[in-house]
Design a protein that fits this description.
globular, binds iron/sulfur cluster, 2 domains, 7-stranded parallel sheet, TIM Barrel, alpha/beta
Length: 337
């Protein structure tokens, strides 16, 4: 069961860097320095009172910034208010996010002692040139070492990747996805690179030295990346940034769509239907084919603004095909007769 998440944004705190794409304030909608022990305590108490499905586990998450870059005192200021809820079982676990080069054996022990169970690493890319051009200040080797340290400490590890960073390409993004999948992360998040107001990328973009990917390219590459993780049964927890007024107000350019994840799923769905129909045509020739799909997948089949319908038509895939939507058909599967 997916956890009920109580999130805290610690925008830019603990981060000694300035990645070219980063404008944490715009992304999280938070004000740096805002979160304190009292706020953590009060928000947890408040959100635990919200109605939720019985048995649904609760996770406290510290997003943004680089948690392990904070002083131990500051880390404890945030973690200590969660401890009583962990002790009673009202909160099952804590999740934090940080940079791969801020993981040390002592830091891992400290996190474990305070009940952190999952660490999400901002990997962003595993291509050295992309990392360098994006001002990340760490290498792919740092990512591998961080994974090894966290695993040795018994913690779960997540990895975030970005698509369309400076120097990125379809080939490089897919290679990064394959390399990250090889590290067997417990979950993955995939984010398109957007140009945000106040970030170094906004200046480069204004100077004409950076061109963000189109929404179409980003959707297609993200679908191929998700295929890589799906094939290895690695959970993709999110595709696209959380939409919101703060993000939209600070967005300068780039492949933003409030339902980006849905667009990607729809693209994957199109590829699945295309592959199944092409295989069936080869086997069955030109006769009538019945394509049975899950009722709940109807919108994925059609696509946003009927985009998939246009794709089927361009390839003449639906000629002599009867499409049936059936409630009992498992999602994301097709049965052909
Ligand atoms: S490491 Fe994270 S918080 Fe720091 S500048 Fe880069 S993206 Fe922003």
């Amino acid at each position: 069961m997916t956890p009920f998440v109580i999130p805290f944004f610690i925008a830019h705190q603990g981060c000694p860097h300035q990645c070219v794409f980063c404008n944490q304030h715009a992304i999280s909608g938070a004000v740096p320095g805002q979160v304190g022990a009292d706020q953590v305590r009060e928000e947890i108490a408040q959100k635990l009172a919200w109605p939720r499905r019985p048995g649904r586990p609760v996770q406290v998450a510290f997003y943004g910034g680089s948690f392990t870059g904070l002083s131990r005192r500051r880390q404890e200021e945030l973690l200590a208010p969660v401890a009583p809820y962990l002790a009673t079982g009202q909160v099952r676990e804590i999740r934090i996010s940080t940079r791969p080069d801020l993981i040390t054996p002592a830091g891992v022990e400290h996190l474990k002692a305070w009940g952190v169970r999952l660490v999400e690493l901002g990997v962003q890319s595993l291509d050295e040139e992309v990392l360098q051009k994006s001002g990340r200040g760490h290498t792919g080797r740092d990512v591998e070492e961080a994974f090894a340290l966290l695993r040795a400490g018994g913690l779960q590890v997540g990895g975030q990747l970005m698509l369309g960073l400076p120097g990125d390409s379809r080939r490089r993004a897919l290679q990064s996805a394959r390399r990250l999948a090889g590290l067997r992360p417990d979950l993955v998040r995939l984010y398109p690179t957007l140009v945000m107001k106040g970030s170094p990328l906004a200046t480069t973009f204004a100077e004409g030295l950076f061109q963000p990917w189109s929404l179409g390219l980003c959707t297609s590459v993200c679908a191929a990346m998700k295929d890589i993780f799906d094939d290895r049964q690695i959970a993709v927890a999110r595709m696209g940034l959380q939409s919101g007024a703060a993000l939209e107000a600070d967005l300068v350019a780039g492949p933003y769509h409030p339902a980006f994840g849905e667009l990607v799923l729809s693209r994957q769905y199109y590829k699945m239907v295309r592959a199944r129909l092409c295989a069936a045509r080869q086997k069955q020739g030109a006769g009538l084919i019945t394509l049975q799909l899950a009722e709940r997948d109807r919108s994925l089949f059609v696509g946003q603004h009927r985009g998939n319908m246009a794709r089927y038509q361009r390839r003449d895939l639906l000629r002599h095909v009867e499409v049936l939507f059936v409630a009992a058909q498992p999602r994301f599967t097709a049965q052909l007769r």
